[in-house]
């Protein structure tokens, strides 16, 4: 048992640190016919796609290894991106020329900014995404990226060599071994394994080895990491059942319409691909005491809930909600999965009850009385590595040139994974070229807060980004991510295109020009009083008053 600090004090987490003999160090170099790359990325999820393309943009010959090419960019859980805090991460990934924001602008079906009632520093850009469109657009981008090779294959082991004496670490990674015994050599390796390290799917009392429904877990790689001495923990998450759209009575539910106009995620886009009037609505319903009754009567049939493994605090299963907050109703958002999809995603109903009980529970909810479950919800348990074993560049302390990104570090997926992926890809490439690492501090971005929290505090539950975690949130707004990070990404990392760099420079100069114009505007206090009668401006002031002074003092009137 290892004790470490969480965000709210000291917490305890159950980790395993088993003693295994170290893997044999290889002194073999790649032969003339052995593939050799600068960077290898293992995993084609949200962290892996960002890592692979970031490394390639930095000029490194990159190999993306994935079980199946047709699952690259697959949205394994909810059909949405963004939210409070998460939308900030997406803007920062985009500022570094990442993919997910641009792909979301091409694939969304419902765009909305959350927290509009508060200041712009805590607005949360969010969108419902068409799963099929997102995957298609992501694969098109990945397969056309220069210097990036995509190959199907499962990694069984790492190739290790003697360490570089000028760096810390017991050994150095120099490639991977696939399950068929073939080897691929590289200068750096990035692991973005998601929930696949010894992944286990749970429905009721049934347990099946899988990283997600239909995909085999990674066992050999998990064993290798343990042998190397990495501290390994266990986390869990889950996903709701999918419901047939035609079986839902939407007419009696609360309808949620998209924003008009819709705000795009990417700084490179003025608009999203679809007009607001053509976007799909979401609907709101709630649980009731009958749902609580079904959960409480069938806890003995739910092994996932009985496990002591920690799940996501801010996206709990319906079973966890009923146990933690009894006698309350809970929101259920009915979200479309795509423009031509017949499925609805019931956000807020993650569950692992036996399949027959899932449909029984769902039909107790208003509007879902005749609902048909097409795919049952399920839980996933998986290994993760204590993130205090990595540096702020996401390179591991134990193994040189080995990087971790995504859920392997104990975070939630999607936005947090994408943010880590782009940083890991940049730094793996910089490491190849023996350049200083690219590190974002807590004062510079939400990505900096995310990585600093992980590498200094660790985590005992899936880490989710919130604006409340960020001390400098008033200056780290979604609208200025490009001015904070794009210039650094271009000059220090080489991950930003010339087009994006020029656009960021144009935006910066335009803002500076606008501020200069505002500073030049000044009138007497009596004239300002006539222009803005609501502002309590003293007419006894003898000196002229600048517009910028008014903005700072009376911004709530302007």
Report on this model:
This protein has 558 residues and is α+β, with helices and mostly antiparallel strands. Among the domains are: 242-379, Elongation Factor Tu (Ef-tu), domain 3; 500-557, no CATH class. The chain is 29% helix and 23% strand. It is built from 15 helices and 26 strands. The strands form 6 sheets. Strands 4, 5, 9, 10, 11, 12, 23 and 24 form an 8-stranded mixed β-sheet that branches. The protein has a 6-stranded antiparallel β-sheet with strand order 17-18-19-20-16-21, with helices on one face. Strands 3-15-22-13-14 form a 5-stranded antiparallel β-sheet. α1 runs parallel beside α10, α2 (86-95) packs parallel to α10 and α6 runs antiparallel to α9. The longest helix is centred in the C-terminal third of the chain and has 23 residues, at 498-520. It is globular, with a radius of gyration of 25 Å. The model is unreliable at 1-24 (pLDDT under 50). Keywords: FAD, Flavoprotein. Belongs to the MnmG family. Its cofactor is FAD. Residues 38-435 form the MnmG N-terminal domain. This is Protein MTO1 homolog, mitochondrial isoform X1.
List keywords for this structure.
558 residues, alpha+beta, Elongation Factor Tu (Ef-tu), domain 3, 8-stranded mixed sheet, 6-stranded antiparallel sheet, 26 strands, 29% helix, globular
Can I get a quick summary?
Its cofactor is FAD. By secondary structure, the protein is α+β, with helices and mostly antiparallel strands.
